[in-house]
Write a structure and sequence with these properties.
The chain has about 160 residues and is mainly α. Helix content is about 65%, strand content about 0%.
Length: about 160
């Protein structure tokens, strides 16, 4: 009795026939064909999930590389600032050594603030507003002679 309920296997499909005609007529796909479809769906799903995971790893590594470059720039800026502060510290240390001498402090106080010691009498020279301060009688660099004969002429005939 069971043999009569069983459907005969479907004949091979013709090359130009449509793939879904058999299911419309009532002939079902074979077990192998259904297994192949499930396997194909499973394969596609695995490929898509693998692609999404790879994309997530790629984006994560790109984000990490960008963060590392930002941190490297901040470290470089901090090193430059540290070098500038170290140079300023060295300058201040030199000034501190310079002014550790009491004679230097007294000299600066006299020059900048006009301080005098007790018992000294300060002398302040004030020039008239229309007079200009005296200049040295010798110029720092004498004018260069124009040529050799001009220099001799100036020596003899002034």
């Amino acid at each position: 009795m069971q043999e009569s309920k069983r459907k005969p296997p479907s004949p091979a499909r013709a090359a130009n026939s449509r793939p879904y005609i058999t299911s419309a007529v009532g002939m079902e796909d074979t077990v192998g064909r259904m297994r192949a479809r499930r396997s194909s769906l499973f394969t596609r799903t695995v490929i898509w999930v693998t692609g999404v995971i790879c994309l997530a790893f790629l984006l994560g590594s790109l984000a990490q590389a960008w963060t590392n470059s930002q941190l490297a720039q901040k470290v470089q800026q901090a090193q430059q600032q540290t070098q500038q502060l170290q140079a300023y510290h060295d300058h201040l240390a030199q000034l501190q050594q310079h002014y550790a001498n009491s004679f230097e402090i007294e000299k600066e106080a006299r020059e900048q603030f006009g301080y005098v010691r007790a018992g000294e009498h300060p002398v302040v020279i004030i020039s008239a507003p229309d007079q200009q301060p005296q200049r040295s009688t010798h110029p720092a660099n004498p004018p260069a002679p124009q040529n050799f004969w001009q220099a001799w002429w100036n020596i003899f005939f002034g």
